[in-house]
Amino acid sequence: MRSLIDILDFSVEDLNELLATANDIIANPSKYAEKCKGKKLATLFFEPSTRTRLSFEAAMLELGGSVLGFSEANSSSAAKGESVADTAKTISCYADIIAMRHPKEGAPLVAAQNASIPVINAGDGGHNHPTQTLTDLLTIYREKGGFNNLTIGFCGDLKFGRTVHSLITALSRYEGINVVLISPEELKLPSYIKKDVLQKKNIPYKQTTDLESVMPELDILYMTRVQRERFFNEEDYLRLKDSYILEPKKLKNAKKDLSVMHPLPRVNEISVAVDSDPRACYFKQVLNGKYVRMALILKLLEEADK
Ligand code: NCD
User: Could you give the CA distance from residue 167 to residue 138 in angstroms, rounded to a whole number?
Assistant: First the structure.
């Protein structure tokens, strides 16, 4: 049974196929309106979410399927002490596919090992977020026409930001990628990702605390929120939360065709005044997220039916 737990579960060919399907859905939505008729998606969200959960639900509804699930741990039997493994076995009796978000790293993998239906990791702790990466890849593809020879700056909370971890991993398979890591000292990219991904694949990267000094080099600026919920103490969060605030004046030296991305939600890190800059792509990302999740649900259900 094929699941999506880590972005590397999908080959570059799989990703190309998914992006092609997503682009076809955008061009011909009515063709897909009944593709999942009679199928059910269960969204098991043990952590807060707006975009990820609702885009999964909207995706399934637009495919003609239906949805069930819960949006907080307290309303499920997890609150009574049920294990992720038992929850996964249970939901396999009710649904055809699961999207799971969980604060514990590895929980969706445990679910996939115990479910008899495909499981999609919709974010596990500070670890991975492969479907945000699909969203980001579709956005980069549509903005830049491909993935090779891009310089990408990741800015903000690179330590706990799971979307950053998954996107760097995904991009490491393309040619001519340059990575610029912009963060406070305390929120640097974990060394296991530097070692297992960047160094292993010989991807040139540099680390800096200064966003403006690297701005002119960037083709993509991927801003992130400081992940309050992963901090051990509030004081550190308060000290670091406004480390980077992107304002129009900071974009003066940026390339004309820079793409500013953000997985959202934003807190303070991009000023609302940037939204009207044609380089702001974060609300396009939101829309792309629904289409690429439609493509993903289709692919996993088709493979499960084989
Ligand atoms: C991200 C997440 O949940 O990791 N949000 C999302 O899914 N679009 C980013 C974040 O919460 O900061």
Answer: 12
